[in-house]
């Protein structure tokens, strides 16, 4: 059995998904969960891309101790310097430096000859080797690169000091058979290949990212890159949960496994979905709501007689448990705290008191407090402290089938002043959002609005996701409440507050 290293790029390639825009606390929350999942490497961001990226990579590198943290750099000294400054305090700092190699990128993007591309790559790796103990080099668009040239440049960067060689299918173009042959070719034609770990990085434009990653493993790859839920540029990256479970279930075939704690998969998937606002499709393999649902009578009958007739993966393997009613309004603080610990939601002592008050208030109104509810309120409370420029104090919405819907909102404003407005709309949400727009001093275009329940039941908590443009800047927001209108208002303000936070940060940087 071989052990395959898992390189998670949810916070870098994943964050490049359209409309995803995580703040520092959200990135830290995801990084901690990736550490719990036991990935080998976390790619925390692209430190030279912006001040915000630099800070989040540095904070993640400082916080995470049980896996290696890396950051992306172009083949330029200033990027490598920024990455070193961000990563130097981390556990096993490693650099991920890349350069495009395909003819199309050489001609149109880099405007460099083959020789110049080799020279740029080699000098970047040599420069980085003076700082980093470990360097991963990636040939961007490797899969549309001439194989002899790919082999040549790979040999040169190994000689220069790279110890992991990544062969990305940047545009999601290659097929599994072909991708396997690229790895085979490199193993046969790069003299120093035994000094390095080969890595696969697949995009899903043609729906082949997982099949390609598995083909790479069959042909000698020792590391797979991907993201949780497969989020990422365009159609996304290889979904790590799918890869890890495929290796686990088909050990007989692949003779390879990962170090991932598979039982942490469902929690990781739901955290990433919640914080990025990217819903997991119901039929998605491993983590979709229907992944373990047997609908047809024949299948149900078979599963009742013997699970393995139609079930190759048990939900428990990846951490899905039936969402039992765990606590209620009579539960004490001690029971609350120990349930959080059992759920892996360890909370510092000073946070227990305010959380318990929220729990009690909710438990008074809601019959059943499920594990999902607990996880949702802990997360929301932890993350809502950031960026509270506008804060919701009160809303009142009047709606009747023969009435013009009207909303009145009271907020605490940017200078802690009380802001009160009222407006109408064609429906309750429109009235509410028209009122909020009058309150937040700017123009808002709503691009998307989504509502979802946390768990089941008519008294379930409501989680609202919005995407909008506020003062010309695209942003997204999340709101949680028992009432859908309150959750909607919170999501709206969360999105507005993110833009104000970015604007304030830019002012400080200037
Ligand atoms: O897809 C890609 O080529 C990348 C590189 C930067 C590794 O993400
Ligand atoms: Zn990529």
UniProtKB/TrEMBL annotation:
CDD domains assigned: DRE_TIM_IPMS
Query: Which residues are recorded as binding Mn(2+)?
Result: 13, 201, 203, 237
Which Gene Ontology cellular component annotation is one that this UniProt entry carries?
A: cytoplasm
GO biological process assignments: L-leucine biosynthetic process
Question: In its keyword annotation, does this UniProt entry include Flavoprotein?
Answer: no
Enzymatic reactions:
3-methyl-2-oxobutanoate + acetyl-CoA + H2O = (2S)-2-isopropylmalate + CoA + H(+)
Coiled-coil regions listed:
none
Q: Which residues form the Pyruvate carboxyltransferase domain?
A: 4-266
Q: Per its Swiss-Prot or TrEMBL entry, what cofactor is needed?
A: Mn(2+)
Transmembrane ranges, per UniProt, are none
Keywords on record: Amino-acid biosynthesis, Branched-chain amino acid biosynthesis, Cytoplasm, Leucine biosynthesis, Manganese, Metal-binding, Transferase
SUPFAM superfamilies the record matches: 2-isopropylmalate synthase LeuA, allosteric (dimerisation) domain, Aldolase
The family database entries (Pfam families) matched by this protein are listed as: HCS_D2, HMGL-like, LeuA_dimer
**EC number(s) on file:** 2.3.3.13
Protein family per UniProt: Belongs to the alpha-IPM synthase/homocitrate synthase family. LeuA type 1 subfamily.
**UniProt subunit comment:** Homodimer.
Function of the molecule: Catalyzes the condensation of the acetyl group of acetyl-CoA with 3-methyl-2-oxobutanoate (2-ketoisovalerate) to form 3-carboxy-3-hydroxy-4-methylpentanoate (2-isopropylmalate).
Q: Which HAMAP family match?
A: LeuA_type1
Protein name as catalogued: 2-isopropylmalate synthase
Source organism of this protein record: Bacillus infantis NRRL B-14911
> In the UniProt record, what gene is named as encoding this protein?
leuA
């Amino acid at each position: 059995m071989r052990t395959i290293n898992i390189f998670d790029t949810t916070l870098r390639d994943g964050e490049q998904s359209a409309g995803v825009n995580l703040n520092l606390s959200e990135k830290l929350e995801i990084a901690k969960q990736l550490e719990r999942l036991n990935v080998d490497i976390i790619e925390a961001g692209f430190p030279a891309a912006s001040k915000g990226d630099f800070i989040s990579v540095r904070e993640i590198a400082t916080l995470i101790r049980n896996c290696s943290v890396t950051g992306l750099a172009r083949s330029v000294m200033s990027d490598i310097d920024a990455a070193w400054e961000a990563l130097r305090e981390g556990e096993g700092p490693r650099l991920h430096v890349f350069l495009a190699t395909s003819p199309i990128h050489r001609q149109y993007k880099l405007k460099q000859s083959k020789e110049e591309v080799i020279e740029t790559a080699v000098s970047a790796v040599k420069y980085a080797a003076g700082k980093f103990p470990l360097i991963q080099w990636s040939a961007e668009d490797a899969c549309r690169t001439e194989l002899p040239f790919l082999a040549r440049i790979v040999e040169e960067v190994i000689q220069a000091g790279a110890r992991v060689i990544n062969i990305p299918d940047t545009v999601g173009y290659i097929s599994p058979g072909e991708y396997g042959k690229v790895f085979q070719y490199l193993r046969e034609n790069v003299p120093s290949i035994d000094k390095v770990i080969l890595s696969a990085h697949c995009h899903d434009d043609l729906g082949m990212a997982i099949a390609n990653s598995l083909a790479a493993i069959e042909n000698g790859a020792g590391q797979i890159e991907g993201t949780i839920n497969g989020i990422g540029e365009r159609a996304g990256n290889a979904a790590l949960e799918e890869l890890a479970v495929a290796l686990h279930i088909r050990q007989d075939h692949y003779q390879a496994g990962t170090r991932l704690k598979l039982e942490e998969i469902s929690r990781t998937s739901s955290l990433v979905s919640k914080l990025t606002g990217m819903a997991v499709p119901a039929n998605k393999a491993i983590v979709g709501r229907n992944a373990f649902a047997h609908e047809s009578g024949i299948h149900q009958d078979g599963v009742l007689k013997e699970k393995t007739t139609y079930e190759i993966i048990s939900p428990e393997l990846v951490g899905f448990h039936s969402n039992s009613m765990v606590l209620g309004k009579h539960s004490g603080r001690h029971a609350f705290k120990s349930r959080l610990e059992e759920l892996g939601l360890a909370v510092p002592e000073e946070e227990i008191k305010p959380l318990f008050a929220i729990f009690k208030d909710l438990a008074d109104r809601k019959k059943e407090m499920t594990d999902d509810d607990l996880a949702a309120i802990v997360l929301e409370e932890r993350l809502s402290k950031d960026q509270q420029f506008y804060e919701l104090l009160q809303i009142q919405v009047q709606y009747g089938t023969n009435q013009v819907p009207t909303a009145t909102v009271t907020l605490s404003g940017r200078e802690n002043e009380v802001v009160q407005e009222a407006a109408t709309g064609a429906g309750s949400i429109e009235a509410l959002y028209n009122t909020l727009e009058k309150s937040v001093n700017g123009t808002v275009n709503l691009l998307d609005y989504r509502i979802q329940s946390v768990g089941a039941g008519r008294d379930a908590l409501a989680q609202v996701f919005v995407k909008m443009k506020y003062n010309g800047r695209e942003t997204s927001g999340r709101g949680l409440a028992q009432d859908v209108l309150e959750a909607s208002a919170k999501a709206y303000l969360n999105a507005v507050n993110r833009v104000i936070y970015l604007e304030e940060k830019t002012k400080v940087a200037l």
